[in-house]
Specification:
Structural class: mainly alpha
Strand content: under 5%
Helix content: 55-70%
Largest sheet: none
Number of helices: 3
Distance between the termini: 30 Å
Number of strands: 0
Order of helices and strands: HHH
Shape: globular
């Protein structure tokens, strides 16, 4: 069981690294904190909760809704 937990943690970290690198690139380019879909600012509470997010809450909800409809 411990081995399984360790593997899940490593997999999660491996998936998170590209998101962190992308967030750092957005900081460098001055685009951090703005929704990639709408261009509107992402609220500070959302950025504090999910620093690597690329969507505002509203845009994320639309994105997830489209994914559900497409069955992905």
């Amino acid at each position: 069981e411990e081995n399984s937990i360790e593997l899940r943690i490593r997999d999660r970290e491996r998936k998170m690294l590209p998101r962190v690198e992308a967030a750092l690139a957005r900081i460098d380019s001055g685009k951090y904190g703005f929704c990639e879909e709408t261009g509107e600012p992402i609220g500070l509470p959302r950025l504090l909760a999910r620093p690597t997010t690329i969507y505002s809450i509203e845009a994320q909800e639309r994105h997830e809704s489209r994914q559900r409809i497409q069955g992905k």
